[in-house]
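Thread: "does anyone have the structure for this chain?"

Original post by V.I.:
We have the sequence but no experimental structure in hand. Need at least a predicted one for the grant figures.
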Amino acid sequence: MFVGGSNWFLSSSLDRRTVLKGAGSAALGLIASTCGPSSASQTSSAPAQSATAGGAEGRETVYVFNVGSKDVTLIDVANRQVRETRPLGASVRWLSNEQTYWDGARIWTYDFPNDQVQAIAIDPRQVAVTRTIGGLGKGPGHSLVVLPDKKKAAVNVAGDNLIAFLDLEHGNVDATLQTGAFP
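Reply from O.Q.:
Generated one for you, tokens below.
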């Protein structure tokens, strides 16, 4: 789960059931506006500094991405209450501690509206999609990974049996690599 605020380790007194109960069925992910250079090793924490989201300066926030309604619910960790739900306009499909999704300014993930894979960047301060790289091919997708230079990414395009390599700075496809069936 993504947590923002001055303390990036989710309190042990707030368990997943509590978060899920308050947020309904949702995809959980880790989001921060000033994440550090490495990815998290557990779902309950993320290496980062502080974040401000929705004007909640210094408050820890859990971001719950709702796939079906294409919005994001912000939960105040201290009082375990939903602060607000904001439209996102995209279904955040997968954010995993096993992959790197932070480029230093935005969270990168993917969506596949109308069965077409597109990379999307979410600005955690605005809590909004601020960049889209479309035309990647037929979906579904299963993973987008920001590469170590933080300027490039790779995303699988399972319907077309390929991996697309993206230039995040310029917003285009650098290259594709054909793979076996359904990477």
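V.I.: this helps a lot. Confidence is low (pLDDT under 50) at residues 1-56.
O.Q.: and Residues 2-132 form one domain.
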